[in-house]
Write a structure and sequence with these properties.
- The structure is a homodimer.
- By secondary structure, chain A is an alpha/beta fold.
- The first copy, chain A, has two domains: 185 residues, Isopropylmalate Dehydrogenase, CATH 3.40.718; 140 residues, Isopropylmalate Dehydrogenase.
- Chain A contains eleven helices and twelve strands.
- Chain A has a ten-stranded mixed sheet, with helices on both faces.
- In chain A, helix 9 runs antiparallel to helix 10.
- Chain A is globular and about 55 Å long.
- The interface between A and B is large, with 68 and 68 residues.
- Strand 7 of chain A pairs antiparallel with strand 7 of chain B, so a sheet runs across the interface.
- One 3-isopropylmalic acid sits at the interface of chains A and B.
- Chains A, B: Homodimer.
- Chains A, B: Pathway: Amino-acid biosynthesis; L-leucine biosynthesis; L-leucine from 3-methyl-2-oxobutanoate: step 3/4.
- Chains A, B: It catalyses: (2R,3S)-3-isopropylmalate + NAD(+) = 4-methyl-2-oxopentanoate + CO2 + NADH.
Chain lengths: 346, 346
């Protein structure tokens, strides 16, 4: 019989609340014969304050035994900036080789957007997840003095760029519009930019059906607000991907509905699924958080594990709920979760 | 008697057309007793193709004798990406120590924006111009092979960060709202991020009247489309500034109206003023380019040279023209320039 062995990391702030709803929907949508086992991990600010630890080797050994990981949110103002981000979130992405950071953007009918004219937005960003300026390379000299020099080194390898570019081409090929946009800044960051561009152009030859284009990251932010319909699949570096996916989320319904997958396509380690939003400590514990982004992340998780029909049902439930939301009074986190459970089982 | 000795670099594509209008407005607005001298320089794609040169030491020696520089646009698809950007634009910014890259964003009544609800946008971005990932540090090994590694090094110094942060605080102090936002990514780029944050917090102590906040660059792109009214002055690094100012331009009237100054506040070298837009080769030579961004750059130039009243008149002319534009049939580049000349002299 089939089973899913899931590591669950509620994390900080609203993390626990949204993960609870995500798990409710997951349990509800899975066929009877699929056994869902979950193990909860207490990472984040609490653990850091209690033990000084963020993510140990033993933690990684334990996490890697699971089929996948569902994460709520990590981060709290009581922890110095960077400690949990570098010490937990990025450490995990790098340790488990999550090189495909998948972030779909779809504006559903009736969903609020800051853009005028309700454009038809439906694209997915494939963000590189294990290289670029995120490697933690760099340092400081004469730290804290008026002569301090701080460097950050963006590291880009042909190996790392090619595998994510290939993943993006395969995704573009599988979509009706078959269009792939490379976003970089190759006119200024010429070393990394030319590597990305050359590999992109080389792989493009194997995908004659895929229409390709190149856009500088600064110009991409313009198109995301003036012409988001032009995008189908975007492939980009780790930092540019971080920036444009927040903007993409903002124009396509907000970070309350933005899902992401930190995917290891080779499956050498479990992939991790998480909402794009953070821990939002200002609204934590009040039942105000929107669990939709987590539920959509559960759909990505289901698809990654081969439960395509179930993923489709979750996506459809969210789409229906969002579209009808305009007529509903504000609901609590649990009420939205319950509504989605109702839809996936109904 | 007073005089302005101006270096004019029309450049490529629409550069010549927009600069012509900028100069018309500049001549028209200057008081009779101010002698305007201009010298045109032929930089850009033509010169590069003819001579292989982008910007020589002799060019720099000649340029530095002027009071200021007005630039149209540099860049052409016939030149490999990066050659003119690194070899001309960035070389000039670095050589003349243009460390304050000033980019105002003001949405005027009636001007089209992709955002719903016509928000009140009026902020200025102070982008660092001589450091960060723009230094050209980095390189490649095993170039062109499957084992290539390409690095880009962001270089940040206490000296460089402090001077631009000070400039931004002074600007915030001089504005009615007195608010300054630091935009960075200090939770991931911790070396550079902490340098920026520490210096920002240190200088803040000298400006008790200035309200300060810190926002990650990814979140900043969200606020720029959902709540742009929150911004008054933003200070940020070279690359983040590049990205968010294109987005800022898009939401506040488009890059057709976005001006910038590459300023050397110490006046050890002439400052340079240019529209944020590029050379737009697709519409070059057709009289379709909007010269407004160049004219607004002329206003920044005037203010930099101490002609505040004249700068105000140019700004007011543009504001009036933009606001009334909605009732006008499309005009040519020259017609818009003529209308602005009429307004500054009328
Ligand atoms: C919290 C931070 C480390 C993270 C990132 O920069 O990748 C977040 O912004 C994201 O996009 O997942
Ligand atoms: C053309 C390019 C070098 C430049 C930059 O990246 O600074 C441009 O995008 C700008 O914003 O002025």
């Amino acid at each position: 019989s089939r089973s899913i062995d899931l590591a669950v990391i509620p994390g900080d702030g609203i993390g626990q609340e949204v993960v609870t709803e995500g798990l409710k929907v997951l349990s509800a949508v899975l066929p009877q014969d699929v056994k869902l086992e979950t193990k909860e991990y207490d990472f984040g600010a609490r653990r850091y304050h209690a033990t000084g630890e963020t993510l140990t080797d033993a933690d990684l050994d334990s996490l890697k035994t699971h089929d996948a990981i569902l994460l709520g949110a990590i981060g709290d103002p009581s922890v110095p900036s960077g400690v949990l981000e570098r010490g937990f979130l990025l450490k995990l992405r790098f340790a488990f080789d999550h090189h495909v950071n998948l972030r779909p953007s779809k504006l559903l009918p009736g969903v609020a957007t800051p853009l005028a004219g309700q454009p038809e937005i439906d694209f997915v960003v494939v963000r590189e997840g294990t290289e670029g300026p995120y490697t933690g390379n760099g340092g400081t000299i004469r730290t804290g003095t008026e002569h301090e020099v701080a460097t950050e080194v963006s590291v880009n390898t042909a190996y790392g760029v090619e595998r994510v570019v290939r993943d993006a081409f395969a995704r573009a090929q599988a979509r009706p519009r078959k269009k792939l946009t490379l976003v970089h800044k190759n006119n200024v960051l010429t070393f990394a930019g030319h590597l990305w561009t050359n590999i992109f152009n080389k792989v493009a030859e194997e995908y004659p059906e895929v229409t390709t284009e190149y856009i500088h990251v600064d110009a991409a932010t313009i198109y995301l607000v003036t012409d988001p319909e032009r995008f189908d699949v975007i492939v980009t570096d780790n930092l540019f991907g971080d920036i444009i996916t927040d903007l993409a989320a903002a124009v396509s319904g907000g970070i309350g509905v933005a899902a992401s997958g930190n995917i290891n396509p080779a499956r050498t380690y479990p992939s991790m699924f998480e909402p794009v939003h953070g821990s939002a400590p200002d609204i934590a514990g009040q039942g105000k958080a929107d669990p939709t982004a987590t539920v959509l992340s559960v759909a990505l998780l289901l698809r990654h594990l081969g439960y395509d029909a179930e993923a489709d049902r979750v996506d459809a439930a969210v789409a229906a709920d969002l579209t009808e939301r305009v007529d509903l009074p504000p609901r609590t986190t649990a009420e939205i979760g319950d509504a989605l459970v109702g839809r996936v089982t109904g």
